[in-house]
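Project outcomes to date are best conveyed with an example. Our students and postdoctoral researchers have been running inverse folding experiments weekly, and each run begins with a structure described purely in tokens. The record below, which covers 81 residues, was selected by the lab manager from last quarter's runs and is presented without edits.
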């Protein structure tokens, strides 16, 4: 049972490390609302669209891990002045 818990802990630590590296290398992801297009289509008239209000028409969003990193960095910077 101990080896199973150790394996699960190592897998979780590995996943967290990969996510941190992904957030550092690629801080932006596709917007979930518009699926990365930046446009929201009208359901009745397929040619009509408007810009996505969540991503302001860019199709990109900041990842959660990057937001946490920026918050911790700003807290550290403000606390060490």
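After processing, the design step wrote out the following sequence:
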């Amino acid at each position: 049972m101990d080896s199973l818990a150790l394996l699960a802990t190592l897998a979780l630590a590995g996943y967290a490390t990969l996510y941190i590296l992904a957030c550092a290398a690629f801080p932006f992801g596709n917007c979930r609302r518009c699926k990365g297009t930046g446009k929201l289509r009208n359901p009745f008239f397929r040619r009509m669209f408007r810009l996505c209000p969540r991503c302001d028409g860019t199709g990109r969003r900041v990842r959660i891990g990057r937001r946490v990193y920026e918050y911790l960095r700003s807290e550290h910077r403000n606390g060490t002045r």
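Strands lie at 28-30, 39-41, 49-51, 60-62. The longest strand covers residues 28-30. The training component of this project remains on track.
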